[in-house]
Amino acid sequence: MLEEEAVPQGIAEDLRPYSFQDVSSVASLMHLSDELNPGERGKTEIRVAGRAMLIRRQGRLIFASLVDSTGHIQLFASASETDKFDSFSQLSIGDWIGVTGVVMKTKRGEFSVAVREWTMLAENLRSFGDKWRGISDPDLRYRQRYVDLWVNPGVRETFQVRSKVVASIRRYLDGLGFMEVETPMLQTIPTGAMAEPFVTHHNALDLDLYLRIAPELFLKRLVVGGFEKVFEIGRVFRNEGISPRHNPEFTMLELYQAYVDYNDIMVLTESLVSHVVSEILGSTVVPYGSELLDFTPPWRRDTLENLVSEKLGEQISLEMDLGRLEGLLKEYDVEAKPDWGPGKKVVELYEKTTESTLIQPTFVLDFPTEVSPLARQHRDKANRVERFETFVAGRELANAFSELNDPKVQRERFEAQLAAREAGDAEAMVLDEDYLRSLEYGLPPTGGLGIGIDRLVMLLTNNQQIREVVLFPTMRPET
RNA sequence: GCGCCUCUAGCUCAAUGGCAGAGCAACGGACUCUUAAUCCGCAGGUUCUGGGUUCGAGUCCCAGGGGGCGCACCA
After folding, report:
1. How many CB atoms lie within 10 A of CB A150?
2. How many domains in chain A?
3. Looking at strand B, which nucleotides approach a protein CB closer than 7 A?
4. Which residue from A95, A104, A135, A304 puts its CA 20 to 30 A from A36's CA?
5. Are residues A161 and A118 in the same domain?
């Protein structure tokens, strides 16, 4: 393919260009189509670059499609006007080329670029799979995402949407005066959520460190430090099973705002999510699987106990007869562990029976204190905290509370978790002395929110699989 | 971690227990308006691995590996 150039002596053998400047995106050329009739050519020279993905050789004419990140356009090469025509006819699917020419319309009216000069930017030495069907084996698609992105329609768009979601969230929170921060991913105490951590080791300090399971306690320290509105968008790591809805590393948005409570955070959640949804999809009503999800505020609000009662057609509460509660657990096939109190039992019953039926955005309010070690006691209800989770399409999207800011109470909650841990619960929360010390300096009343970005992107791209919205999902190494 | 399903050419897929095949890609050729072009030709295999049953195994059985789904755990 390089027959026209000899290798100069004493110079790198790589004859490929090191740059190809001043290219127009394919999408930016499309408006020129209207001005041309079939057989007509534009007057100004343009340059495009991308991969040749379909090549149709027609003797002394060659049609190909050039694809870049913005779209695709037909290339039209002819023996009479295209430089290095013989080499052009030997292009492989997937070769990167840079093209100089003019826009045109073929006799059949297809908007194209007539190739005058062109240069090979990088060859594709491998197969892009079946020309029509590409690759579909999920294993191959995830391991070789760089191929998947080229051959499967929609994949590129999914990740473009993901990028826009994150950008939209940042813009929105910035507009509200929130400050974005970064807190440690390597932590000496993995806490802030109920999950098993990954362990690693720092050599110089000879110290085991954990990949964070949540940024929560560091962000609240920053509120103690005087940043009244902070947020972080970042990866967290949980050493748990992989499933269509779980990847060991995933992306969380957490935000904390001083002087507000969980009622205010509910309003913020609604407005943030509905804003992002409509900015990206142009509507607050979005198709998801066989459902139509309506993100238009206000969303349904009801307590966890009411929701599970409604579902089971029987009054469920933390204060209900314990024998009856245990009977229900049995009836719905929930295997209770001996250390579960009534709060945990009610929550498990709710998760088993009710969660998956909450399709439209729903705020589930007032969780039992027993399962919420970082949330503040409810101002009106004993044994419950001011906490909500948001459910959409049967899955948790957000988790939020009025933050517990009393250091004494927080210590008691940690100690209860410690007891659970000693009883064998590997995911019970770990006590963090420095965090307690920070609370002793005073955490103002604060509302906090966590949103799973991956799950939000799944909703906006109509994907049921987390791997479809994570560029490189966790997999076993190739054998 | 447990259960079920699956693995055949670079890709997508066929093949009653009886000669391992097709389409696309690749390679060689024809073709000046194609749109997954078409046509002719050629080549391509440790049927995931290792055992076993059988005259004979891609196919049946056992073990292992990769992947998928469900459960469990969680967000």
Report:
1. 19
2. 2
3. 1, 10-13, 23-28, 30-38, 65-75
4. A95
5. no
A92 contact to strand B (CB, 7 A limit): yes
A227 touches strand B (CB under 7 A): no
Q: Is pLDDT larger for residue A2 or for residue A220?
A: A220
In this structure, is the CB of residue A90 within 7 Å of any atom belonging to strand B? yes
> Does residue A169 share a domain with residue A115?
no
Is the Cβ atom of A356 within 7 Å of strand B at any atom?
no
* Distance, CA of A385 to CA of A65 (rounded, Å): 59
Q: What is the pLDDT of residues A157-166, one digit of tens each?
A: 999 999 999 9
Which CATH number is A114's domain given? Answer: 2.40.50.140
A243 located within any domain: yes
Same domain, A281 and A169: yes
Per-residue flag: A314 CB under 7 A of strand B: no
Q: What is the per-residue pLDDT for A13?
A: 55
In a domain, A68, yes or no: yes
CB of A134 lies under 7 Å from some atom of strand B: yes
The pLDDT tens digits of the residues spanning A64-104 come to 999 999 999 999 999 999 999 999 999 999 999 999 999 99
pLDDT, tens digit (0-9, with 9 covering 90-100), for A40-72: 999 999 999 999 999 999 999 999 999 999 999
Q: Is residue A333 part of a domain?
A: no
- CA A139 to C1' B65, in angstroms, rounded, equals 14
- Protein A79 CA to nucleic acid B40 C1', in Å? 23
Q: Which two tokens stand for residue A3?
A: 């027959």
The complex's ipTM works out to: 0.88
A156 phi/psi in degrees, rounded to 5? -60, -45
| A279 occurs within a structural domain | yes
The CATH number for A408's domain is: 3.30.930.10
Strand A199-202's sheet: what is its strand order?
A186-187, A207-211, A199-202
Strand, coil or helix: what is A102?
strand
Helix (H, G, I), strand (E, B) or coil at A90: coil
* Dihedral sign, Cα of residue A87, residue A90, residue A95, residue A99: positive
- State which residues form the domain around A84: 26-125
Instruction: State whether A47 and A178 are in the same domain.
Output: no
Tens digit of pLDDT for each residue in A177-192? 999 999 999 999 888 8
